[in-house]
Amino acid sequence: MRTMAGLTVFIPVYNEESLLATHTRQLVRFLDSLNLPYEILIGSNGSDDQTVSILSGLSRELSGLNWFHQPEKGVGAAFKEAVNRAVYDRIITVDMDLSIDLKFIEQSYYLLDDHDMIIGSKITGNQQRSWIRRIASNIFIQLAKRLLHIDFHDYSIAAKAYRKELVKQYPGCMDRHTFYVLNIILNASRNGCKIIEIPVSCSDFRKSRFNLLNEGIYKFGNLFKLWLKMMTS
Q: Which of 44, 63, 92, 225 has its CA 20 to 30 A from that of 37?
């Protein structure tokens, strides 16, 4: 018998005024169709456009929407705040562009009955993205496999689902930026937590919210730092 536990859908945003209202309403329609208790929790980090003003207006219109704003940019810091604020124990992360097939939300919700974390993988699923982003992701995934001895295929922030109690075990894993996903996966897998990876469909050709060069230096640099730490510990 399926549980009727609630669901928190967390979306970190940075300057998303152009699609915030339309995509939030689209997500509400989808979640309403599932007939599950839910909240949408949107975390603005560093937004300096009309994002905060739009969120304020939407929250008065949509009863299932909660939000917060952090003045400094940092998606990892926003995720950490979201974990503390989440109304429900099941937390699923998506991007504001809704580039991941929303079926991942329903599938992950029920998989969390018996798992601690769900990894949505574009590599094992279907991805329509620029060649440079696909190549960079593949290189990072293969390096993580060789250096850290973990065999998953997606460490991006979107299309991930967590039990709240799992994430709260690893507060030190959540840095300000995007490396927290790999950190949590690594520690949870080593501690015997139940993690499952499932394929997802992704269509994303819009300009990244991150500076890709800076993001690459940050992620690959942190990967090698983590490997050196493991080698010397």
A: 44
What is the spatial distance between Cα 8 and Cα 49, in angstroms, rounded to a whole number?
A: 25
Position 167, amino acid: V
Model pTM score = 0.91
pLDDT tens series, the chain, 233 aa: 344 689 999 999 999 999 999 999 999 999 999 999 999 999 999 999 999 999 999 999 999 999 999 999 999 999 999 999 999 999 999 999 999 999 999 999 999 999 999 999 998 988 887 778 788 889 999 999 999 999 999 999 999 999 999 999 999 889 999 999 999 999 999 999 999 999 999 887 666 655 677 888 889 999 999 998 888 87
> Distance (Å, rounded) from C-alpha 138 to C-alpha 124?
11
Compute the distance between CA of residue 11 and CA of residue 160 in angstroms, rounded to an integer: 11
CATH fold for the domain made of 7-131+156-205:
Spore Coat Polysaccharide Biosynthesis Protein SpsA; Chain A (3.90.550)
